[in-house]
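Table 4 source record.
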Amino acid sequence: MIRRPTPVRKRRKSAELSETEDRATRAEHGIQLKPAHFPGRAPIDSYGDGGFRFAEMSHRGSILCLPSGIYAWAPQTPADLEPSSFETVLDEDGIELLLIGTGVDLVPLQPASRERLEARGMRVEMMGTGAAARTFNVLLAEGRAVAAALLAIK
């Protein structure tokens, strides 16, 4: 199961380590925390009810489907789609087409976000999340260099 990379914060008790102390302890022991992701390409089996099903797993929230795997994605509404939302996509190589599912309705992408993505050589197609998931599955089955950024539908 893929989970959001943001940890649940608990109140600090005096016996607990501070975040800095905790980081130092993890580094001392060679422990590296990375955001959870599914390390492979998989079609989207279903969507709705606030999440997605893929590879016999489920995930609540939005997702990025990239060549390196499927990742939890922070944006929840089209208004959250800022240029910084696409940093993980921009770090990825080999994407020719990025499908962006904007939820139930089609919403245009901010020009700054589109320009950054297109500057990396990606075609960007906006559509509702359902259409984006179906199109992603077809293009993935054809072996195309496709990625998808999908907002969850409640």
